[in-house]
Amino acid sequence: MATTTQPRPGLQAYRESLSLAFPDLVASLANSIGRKLTAYVAGVKDVRALDRWMEGKEPYGNAEPRLRLTFQVVRTLLDHDPPNVVQAWLTGVNPELGDRVPLRLLREGDLEVIAPEVLAAARAFISGG
């Protein structure tokens, strides 16, 4: 059984999702999962919105909480898998989520409802269960 230096999977990701400045968080997500997927979760059609946010402009709607949750999920998964696996996990039909697609839930779902579901599915994936 592999040991981890983290007390719980995702704890550091959670801390970073709260403490990172929004421009840095957007840049990190864009670098990790790509600009198109990041813009999709944020609910924007134009990836240039990401550039504006990285320059310090205020996000609109509920883009910030959605991207902070997405960052937490992505960062948790990246501790265990490479970016291409994380992207595939985000965009694939997930049996832990009732065969729903995590990325769509992160974009469209009620955050209070889907946050624990998506995080639990990510933890199940990294634990191999």
Concise synopsis of the structure shown:
The protein has 129 residues and is mainly α. Helices cover 66% and strands 0% of the residues.
Question: Could you name the key traits of this structure?
Answer:
129 residues; mainly alpha; globular; 8 helices
Describe the structure.
The protein is mostly helical. The chain has one domain. The protein is 66% helix and 0% strand. It contains 8 helices and no strands. Helix 2 packs across helix 3 and helix 7 packs antiparallel against helix 8.
Q: What string gives the helices and strands in order?
A: HHHHHHHH
Kindly, what is the distance between the CA atoms of the first and last residues, rounded to a whole number of angstroms? 14 Å
Q: Give me the number of helical elements.
A: 8
The Cα radius of gyration reads 14 Å
* Percentage beta strand: under 5%
Q: Could you describe the largest sheet, including whether it forms a barrel?
A: none
Average pLDDT figure: 93
Class by alpha and beta content:
mainly alpha
Helix content class: 55-70%
Tell me the total number of β-strands: 0
- As residue ranges, the low-confidence spans are 1-6
The domain tally reads 1
General form: globular
